[in-house]
Amino acid sequence: MKSIFARRPGAAPFGELPRGQRTAKPSLHFPSRISPGNVVVLRSVNAMDIQYSLIRSRKRKKTLSLQIGSRSEITVQAPYHMPAAEIQRFVKEKQAWIEKSLRRQALQQASHSKKACETGEQFYYLGEACPLEAFFDPLEYPGVVFRDHRFFLNCPADRKLRKYFLTAWYRKQARRHLTQRVDFYSRLLGLTPGGIRITSAEKRWGSCSEKNHLSFAFRLIMAPPQMVDYVVVHEMMHIREKNHSSKFWSLVLEVIPDYQTRRLWLREHQQHFDL
Length: 275
Ligand SMILES: [Zn+2]
Hints:
With 275 residues, this protein is an alpha/beta fold. It contains 7 helices and 12 strands. The chain has 2 domains: 3-105, no CATH class; 122-272, Zincin-like (2-Layer Sandwich). Strands 1-4-5-3-2 form a 5-stranded mixed beta sheet. Strands 6-7-9-8 form a 4-stranded mixed beta sheet. Helix 4 (159-189) packs across helix 5 (225-237). It starts with a strand and ends in a 6-residue tail after the last helix. The chain binds zinc ion. Zinc ion (ZN) binds next to loops.
């Protein structure tokens, strides 16, 4: 991800030097690029510290720019003579945006479909990206324990085996959560499904058979609860209407007024919920 901000600062800092310095020419030639590894930390009282590389450029006249690289590294480019305080102020102004971008980037990186299932990787559970801690203790039961928004996976360092345990855990949570939601909407809507099945489907979130058996992909449990609910209501409405007619959608609309937003959200985020 590459994001750029540029702005023209209010006052040009140079040209306002004290009189004595105004005519003084620098006696030393500094490279126009001060080391890109010139890392600056912007201390923040109640949020994260922002660390960035500062590049001062002679070519750059008035604008400051801020970029976030693919590895979350932040680079600020500034005019050569701009006072540090002004640069800090600029970064501080962008702090909320930077944090939001870094969070979004972390979420995107959490959603790589080819997961190695290694410590530090993020896995979704009900819309939340939670880090994995993988280890192997042969004296303990293998498998997943989910605690304090973290996955603890005890398993030999084998990708397939780790995936197997994670999938088993997801399926179990999917069954529990979806059974609960289907029960809730059964009572609310007075609809009785023939049963619930959890599948490994990759292309669809759910389905409803002729005999009203509901199927849900276990991956659905990675999505936020309101998205899960939309899929539940969608499939349950097929008990009444076995098609996607306007009558069907109006039935969904009665229960989930913002179903279109949720439907679109799922479509856009589908690739993130993979193992
Ligand atoms: Zn449908």
